[in-house]
Amino acid sequence: MGGSNPYNEAVEYKLPSKPYKITVLSDELTLEFSVKPENLPYSHNGLKGSLLEVMLGHDAPVDHACGGVCACSTCHVYVEEGLDSCNEANEDEEDMLDSARSVKPYSRLACQCIPNGSKDITVRIPSWNRNLVSEEH
């Protein structure tokens, strides 16, 4: 599924051209992995190269009820480091974040947030927002 929503404005972004590292934090775990641009996409949910798409491809337990098409706010995460290397949130993402819980200045929907690879990224999955189901790739 995943990717774009035909009812939303197209997301502007630049895919990475060099490898970078993502660190995923939650109350239960810390995952660290390298993202290689030539391996994109890693999964089938969210925009190509999005945090959701890459994190699911590395078995990070992030929820995504709509399949990553910016139609809900279940993939709400905190980008604690490297946010300035990600595309800016568009109006559709900001509208979805309005319905998210505990929004902070560094909140993003993982399905819409796409790092350009210029910096390493640290993402926190809030304890109330993790996927408790293991899914097949």
Strand order within the widest beta sheet: 2-1-5-3-4
Count the beta strands.
5
CATH topology (level 3) name: Ubiquitin-like (UB roll)
The total of helices stands at 2
Strand fraction equals 15-25%
Largest sheet: 5 strands, mixed
What letter string, H or E per element, gives the SSE order?
Answer: EEHEHEE
CATH superfamily: Beta-grasp domain
What structural class do the secondary elements suggest?
alpha+beta
User: CATH first level: which class?
Assistant: Alpha Beta
In whole angstroms, the N-to-C terminal distance is 12 Å
Over all CA atoms, what is the radius of gyration?
A: 13 Å
Form type: globular
Q: Tell me the count of domains.
A: 1
Average pLDDT metric: 89
Helix content: 10-25%
CATH architecture: Roll
Description:
The chain has one domain (about 20-125): Beta-grasp domain (Ubiquitin-like (UB roll), Roll). Helix content is about 10%, strand content about 20%. It has two helices and five strands. It has helices spanning about 50-55, 90-95, and strands at about 20-25, 30-35, 75-80, 105-110, 120-125. Strands 2-1-5-3-4 form a five-stranded mixed sheet. A hairpin with a 4-residue loop joins strand 1 and strand 2 (about 30-35). The mean pLDDT is about 90.
Topology:
Blueprint: E1 20-25, E2 30-35, H1 51-57, E3 76-81, H2 91-97, E4 107-109, E5 121-124
Parallel strand pairs: 1-5
Antiparallel strand pairs: 1-2, 3-4, 3-5
